[in-house]
Each structure stands twice: as structure tokens, then as C-alpha cells.
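User: quick one, fold this
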Amino acid sequence: MKNKKSFFLLLIICLFSMFCQSVFGEQFVADHTVATEDVLRSIPQEYIDAVRENLHIAYQHTSHGTHVSRGMFGLQDYKDGDDILFGIENHTVPGTPVEGKLNFYDYAIRETPATDLSVNETTFVQLTRDYLDAPENAHINVVMWSWCDIAGHNAEGNYLPGMQTLIDEYGSDGSKIGSGSGSGQRQEPVTFIFMTGHANKEANTGFLQPKPQADLINNFSRTNGYFCLDYYNIDTHDMDGNYWEDAGDNGDSTTGGNFYQDWQDSHTLGQDWFENKLSPGGSVAYGAHNTQHITANRKAYAMWWILARIAGWSGDNSESSHSFNPQLMLLLLKNSSE
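Assistant:
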């Protein structure tokens, strides 16, 4: 009887360990739950280092997309050591990567008629091909396009199929990856990061509005194991995790007030939040269309979470507390046999 109890206890512990690892490893959408400083600081340094050493990012956007870039540019000046840990170098044109800093190309693929996903819903595919096929961009291995206003656009019919086409061509095992006869134009595979659109105050629900569009993109990302930066979710959740469906892209809600401004006003600069910047070491600036820094702070945290995942991190923010503990297992087995 004792041996049978011990066997089942061991089985339960093993299954629990596997379950925890599976749950934490299955999150691909960077929403408000990961867009926090606590989560950022919990990422093992080896993966932050791997991001800086190995990733070369091309990011294309217009005004709303600055929430990510300005947040990332300001983060490196936040606290002691962040200039090293989250060091970033912005290249607006192709250039030699700076050793020790994240190689970031802001406004990388800007071309008319598609300066963002909202300007032209299909042209971004060919523009991305042209960019990645250029010899000077052979080192680029992460690409992300931002929406301006997603409302009214056909994300299901244009954006998602377009991104899937790019993944099929340039992703791992893509048709354009390889150096052999008949293979593609480049050797470096590319990870494509999906994005949802920003929130629109009192206009988030209904046909082709930000919420159903975000649900569509997030579900597609989760189903296929693709990373997504969820603008909509971050815009509509306050720092306590409360959801305000009527909120806009400035953390402003008719029912909840300006929850990001209120939080910033009650917390300390340099301790709880940081100033976003136009460029690394540059002038202080809000994310476009914002009157507070918290929105872009959170989107920078979310972006680093995604990049760490791309660099190989499991995404388990409680790794030490949920990992398999053999000493605990032996103690439980001992107690069960007594």
C-alpha cells in the first residue's frame, strides 16, 4: 500500500511540474500581464544578454508605433545598470551593429504607399520581401509592423494571411531560407512579431473595431505559436489589471478616469516609471498621442518580454518556485510512507 501511495504521489508531482512548465511556455501574446517591471526584472539575464548579442530588429510604424520605440529608448536610462542591460542602438539606415547593444532599426521599411499596416493592408508583404532580400539587410532576424488605427481594416483577410506568407517564406524552414541550389536569397531566418491595434475611446467594440480585431489576431497568434504585442490589451488595462472597455490609447476611460496618468502622478520618476525618449540618450518625449509615460513604458516591457522569448527564454516568470524540486519530492514521499 505504501509503495502504491508513493508511486501515485511521485506521478502527481511529475505531472504538476510538467503542467507548470507547459502553461508558462504556452503564452505567446504580450498583454498587460507581462507588461510590468516586475516581469521584466524576472527575465534571467542570460536571455537579456542573448537578445542584445543575437537579435537585429527591423521595426516599421508611424505615430502610434512610437510607444514601443520611445519606451525602449528611454528604458536604458531608467535605473542603474539599465544602460548596459537594456542598451540599444538605433539605426535609421543600414549600419554596423554596435557590440553589446541591441541592434534596432527604427522606421526600417518606410516606403510609400505603406508606412504602416493601416495605410495599405497588402503592400507591406512585398515591401518586407524587398527589404529582407537586400544584401545589406541579410543580418536582420526580427521584423515587426505596427498599426495606426486598426478600426475598419480587414485584418482577417489581409494582415493575417500576409504575415503567414512572410513566415512561410522567411521563417524557420521558409522557402526563401538556405544557401543551396534552388534555395532562397538569405541564410538567416526571420521571426515576425504580430501586433494588435491601439484602443479607441468609447469605440472599441463592434464590427471591425479594435477589440474584435485584437481577439482575432491574438487567437491566430496563440493557435500558431506566434508572438504578438497586444497594444489593445495594454491600453485598456490599468496597473491593477482592471479592464476598461471604453478606454482609449492614452489610458483614458469615461468610467475609469485617466488611470495611467493617475498612477504616474502617485508614483516616483526613476523608481516606479521612466521617461520615454525620441532616441537612445535623446530628448524626452511621450509616446505619440499620449500625455503620460506609462503606456510606452509598458509596451517597452512587453517588447523585451517577446525578445527574450525569441532568444530562447521559456517565459516562466516563476521558474524557481514552479520547477521540479527533488528534495521536496523526497520529503513528501517520506511523509507518505510513515
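User: anything notable?
Assistant: Strands lie at 29-30, 56-60, 88-90, 102-106, 142-145, 191-195, 228-229, 252-253, 257-258.
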